[in-house]
Inverse folding.
């Protein structure tokens, strides 16, 4: 019965692993819900600020803020890539990097240089290995990030764009579609894409203090920050959803393994009993 | 005629207050504003200070904000509050910090971005993932 003991040990260790994956699955599920709540909480601000910017941009059509103007010649593009800090979330980060690389290759083919600004340690380890030019990096934002954590990175990009160092900035992150699916997305962050004029309903004749141009500058910065903040929240919801699914699969796999091993164990036990019995019987027959 | 004005105080991280008020006081960048219903439409920035909201039942609520923007329509006030103290030099410090981390990470490396290598590695990883998925499906059958 030497085999049976080993199998028992194996079953026990798999059961322990299963407990861990099960716990991780449940933790991820509750964190995902919280992340979704946070996303909902951030929406009113983004909607409001977008409206105000729309009004401001309309207020003096002859003035074009640099952050709103599309540049013809693109020599250097920036990518703000938002990844997770931790692994065990399936192919989430890999799909995202693939999406980013695809776009980068197009840009490179068009003759543009590439700057990277990274959020999350997974993107840092990935892109560092391949010698990309990384201009800023933030990681370990935790489950409830704050806008303050992102100001530095966003400011670097805004400044680089304003000084003409960068001609476009793209935001790469995962979008939460459902628990089962997360979509790697690439959006243009700068220049800020003008919004639909039709969407602005009541048009008020605002008084601007100080001037509309100065207000626009301030608000566009805030708007960009809130965009990035939302992307980070979105990515966290995706991370938790992906982890939940991955851990559920792992728990199921562990269950299958345990079932198979249990069968092997039962067989081994039965074989040992049969052998013992036949030994006794044949021993008795010999007497 | 409505004698109240709707107040929404929102920050990037969440809604802070939403309700009706008879009067709102806000610290605009060019002087404090008292906003009654049917105020002229106005957009302005705010300095750090206190937003005071007087509700219909005579109560007064205080919200400390660290700056932001203010949008006024005749029956609607929206305060876009900043989530943190903002100052040019503070932002600068944050930017330098983010840059420093990147430079640390880039230490002892001067090679060009090897996109081909990155892509082939990703291809390997996704092939592995696909193989695992296939195996799993087979195991189920």
């Amino acid at each position: 019965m030497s085999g049976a003991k080993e199998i028992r040990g194996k079953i026990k260790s798999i059961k322990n692993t299963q407990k861990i994956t099960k716990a991780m699955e449940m933790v991820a599920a509750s964190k995902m819900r919280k992340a979704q709540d946070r996303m909902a909480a951030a929406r009113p601000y983004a909607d409001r600020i977008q409206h105000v910017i729309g009004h401001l941009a309309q207020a003096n059509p002859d003035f074009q803020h640099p952050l709103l103007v599309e540049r013809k010649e693109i020599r250097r593009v920036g990518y703000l890539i938002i990844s997770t800090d931790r692994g065990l979330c399936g192919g989430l980060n890999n799909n995202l990097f693939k999406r980013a690389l695809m776009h980068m290759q197009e840009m490179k083919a068009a003759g543009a240089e590439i700057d990277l600004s990274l959020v999350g340690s997974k993107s840092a380890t990935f892109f560092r290995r391949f010698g990309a030019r990384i201009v800023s990096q933030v990681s370990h934002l935790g489950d409830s990030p704050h806008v303050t954590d992102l100001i530095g990175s966003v400011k670097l990009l805004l400044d680089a764009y304003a000084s003409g160092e960068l001609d476009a900035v793209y935001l790469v992150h995962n979008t939460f579609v459902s628990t089962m699916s997360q979509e790697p997305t690439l959006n243009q962050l700068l220049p800020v894409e003008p919004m639909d004029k039709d969407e602005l309903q009541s048009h008020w004749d605002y008084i601007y203090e100080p001037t509309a141009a100065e207000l626009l500058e301030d608000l566009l910065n805030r708007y960009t920050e809130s965009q990035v903040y939302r992307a980070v929240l979105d990515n966290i919801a995706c991370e938790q959803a992906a982890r939940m699914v991955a851990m559920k699969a792992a728990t199921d796999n562990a269950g299958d393994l345990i079932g198979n091993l249990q069968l092997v164990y039962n067989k081994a036990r039965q074989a040992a009993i049969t052998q013992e019995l036949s030994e006794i019987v044949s021993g008795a027959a010999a007497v | 005629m409505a004698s109240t004005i709707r107040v929404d105080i929102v920050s990037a991280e969440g809604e802070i207050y939403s309700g009706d008020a008879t009067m709102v006081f806000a610290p605009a960048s060019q002087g404090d504003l008292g906003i009654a219903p049917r105020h002229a439409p106005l957009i302005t920035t705010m300095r750090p200070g206190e937003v005071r909201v007087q509700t219909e039942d005579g109560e007064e609520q205080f919200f400390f904000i660290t700056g932001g923007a203010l949008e006024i329509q005749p029956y609607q006030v929206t305060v876009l509050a900043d989530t943190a103290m903002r100052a040019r030099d503070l932002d600068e410090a944050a930017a330098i910090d983010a840059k420093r981390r990147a430079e640390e990470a880039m230490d002892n490396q001067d090679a060009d971005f090897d996109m081909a290598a990155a892509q082939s590695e990703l291809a390997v990883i996704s092939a592995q993932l696909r193989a695992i998925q296939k195996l799993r499906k087979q195991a189920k059958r």
User: Anything to note?
Assistant: Chain A touches chain B through 67 residues (CB under 8 Å). The beta strands of chain A are 76-82, 113-119, 134-138, 168-176, 182-190, 207-209. Chain A has a mean pLDDT of 88. Chain A is about 60% helix and 15% strand.
